[in-house]
Amino acid sequence: MCEIEDIRQWRGRDVVDESGSKIGQLEAVYVDTGTDRPSFLTVRMGLPTRQRLVFVPLDGAKVGPEYVRVAYGKKQVKSSPSIGTDGELLAGDEQAVFDHYELPYQAAPDERRLARR
């Protein structure tokens, strides 16, 4: 697993899927608020005039010379919940991100599970 200080340096680098197909560019790192460890990436994808940020878990990710390889296929990542390039993930939308990747989600009412760093 990458340390958060290291992964921040990869902002703007390519994110590729498990088979090496380019998905988009790394935009931001989201940490688990309970552990303060990197948990999700947002990936900038889409046409230049219609870009969006999609979420992908960092579990199983590997860093290459000029890319971050995630452990999920491009099709699954592309259909992940997304936000606008200047938007933010609302607390009420967090569970949908976890559900998309079939990951367990637990958060106390009115608490956030993910925070952008």
Structure description:
Residues 6-76 form the PRC-barrel domain. InterPro entries: Bac_photo_RC_H_C, PRC-brl_dom, PRC_barrel-like_sf. This is PRC-barrel domain containing protein. Strands 1, 2, 3, 4, 5, 6, 7 and 8 form an eight-stranded mixed beta sheet that branches. The protein has three helices and eight strands. It is an alpha+beta fold and 117 residues long. The chain has helices spanning 4-8, 74-78, 94-100, and strands spanning 14-16, 22-32, 38-45, 52-57, 62-63, 67-69, 82-84, 114-116. Strand 3 (38-45) and strand 4 form a beta hairpin. It has one domain (4-116): Photosynthetic Reaction Center, Chain H, domain 2.
Give a short summary of the structure.
The protein has 117 residues and is of the alpha+beta class.
Key terms for this structure?
single chain, 117 residues, alpha+beta, Photosynthetic Reaction Center, Chain H, domain 2, 3 helices
What is the level 1 CATH name? Answer: Alpha Beta
Proportion of β residues?
A: 25-35%
Number of domains: 1
Nearest-angstrom radius of gyration?
A: 13 Å
Number of helices, counting only DSSP H or I runs of 4 residues or more: 3
CATH topology: Photosynthetic Reaction Center, Chain H, domain 2
CATH-defined architecture: Alpha-Beta Complex
Structural class: alpha+beta
Report the major sheet. Answer: 8 strands, mixed
Strand element count: 8
| CATH homologous superfamily annotation | Photosynthetic Reaction Center, subunit H, domain 2
Euclidean distance between termini CA atoms: 16 Å
- Could you say which overall geometry the principal axes of the C-alpha atoms support? globular
User: In percent, how helical is the residue content?
Assistant: 10-25%
Q: How are helices and strands ordered from N to C?
A: HEEEEEEHEHE
Could you report the average pLDDT, rounded to the nearest whole number?
Answer: 88
The oligomeric state is single chain
